[in-house]
Specification:
The complex is a heterodimer.
Chain A: E1 4-9, H1 15-30, E2 35-40, H2 45-50, E3 56-59, E4 71-73, H3 75-79, H4 83-98
Parallel strand pairs in A: 1-2, 1-3, 3-4
Chain B: E1 12-16, H1 21-34, H2 42-52, E2 56-57, E3 64-65, E4 78-84, E5 90-91, E6 102-103, E7 107-112, H3 116-130, H4 133-141, H5 145-158
Parallel strand pairs in B: 1-4, 3-7
Antiparallel strand pairs in B: 2-3, 4-7, 5-6
Helix pairs in contact in B: 1-2
Chain lengths: 99, 161
């Protein structure tokens, strides 16, 4: 199965994005999907997307523009407020991507 | 450094009243500067960041906000807690401020962290606190600064990440 490459984005490119990246990797792993992540700030997204090797963006800060890969807002996953909605969307998107 | 050491009775405000968000940041920054926790650029930088990367959060209990900025403007790490009537608008984290998705926090945790790794621990602990409805409602009810501080410290030390 294809290994997913995920861009995790937050304002600093280190803190919240790492929290989300770890939670996302664990969640996907539990569902039989393996993934690698890279953490960046919004300014770092463009060049990663342009490289063409990333599949998905999860973010807790606003993104600078629209990209041609799926993006999911992860703030609800961070606070636990909209955790189920996030998980549902993530798994649905990830399963499509590894098909 | 343990999380509970980041709080101080001088940095707890249980009846915050501010005319605007700018006014809020100016007032708290000026107190923090008197206490020598921050560099003078802090006030401008934290507002700049909040405009680009807003920090308002909706929780199961009530709205909160966790404004912060880069470590270089902080002398000594701290968490300043402000309780207030929900009158001050913050944009919701993860949204573009142009969308005007607003929240009205009843608690603001203003974070000053001079080491990145510590910030991760702080955020994880705070997220855990925010999802605990019982703890959150106590934080709204407690009347004395001293017991507020003790309550928060007790929760954070028994729920270490």
């Amino acid at each position: 199965m294809k290994k997913l490459k995920i861009i995790s984005v937050c304002g600093s490119g280190t803190v919240t994005s790492s929290m989300i990246a770890n939670k996302v990797k664990d969640l996907l792993d539990d569902n039989g999907i393996s993934a690698t992540t890279v953490e960046v700030n919004p300014g770092g997204v463009e060049q990663l997307v342009v490289s063409g090797s990333y599949d998905l963006i999860v973010h807790t800060s606003p993104l600078l523009s629209a990209y041609n890969i799926p993006t999911i807002n992860a703030v609800g996953f961070l606070t636990g407020m909209a955790e189920e909605e996030f998980i549902e969307e993530l798994l649905k998107t990830a399963k499509e991507l590894v098909k | 450094m343990h999380l509970t050491e980041l709080f101080d009775e001088n940095m707890i405000e249980l009846h915050g009243e501010f005319a605007s968000q700018t006014n809020f940041f100016k007032e708290i920054s000026s107190r923090l500067q008197d206490l020598q926790y921050i560099k003078k650029e802090f006030c401008g930088k934290i507002q700049e960041r909040e405009k680009k990367f807003p920090t308002g959060l909706v929780t199961k209990s009530f709205d909160v906000a966790i404004p912060h900025t880069d470590p270089e403007y902080v002398n000594r790490s701290f968490i300043y807690v402000i309780r207030l009537a929900p009158t001050l608008a913050f944009c919701q984290m993860g949204t573009d401020p142009m969308e005007r998705k607003l929240v009205y926090p009843k608690l603001i945790f203003l974070l000053g962290v001079n080491k990145g790794e510590l910030q991760l621990t702080i955020l994880q602990s705070l997220m855990k606190l925010f999802s605990n409805e019982k703890q959150m409602s106590s934080l709204l009810e407690i009347k004395e600064k001293n017991s507020f501080l003790q309550h928060l410290q007790k929760y954070l030390s028994t729920n270490e990440i």
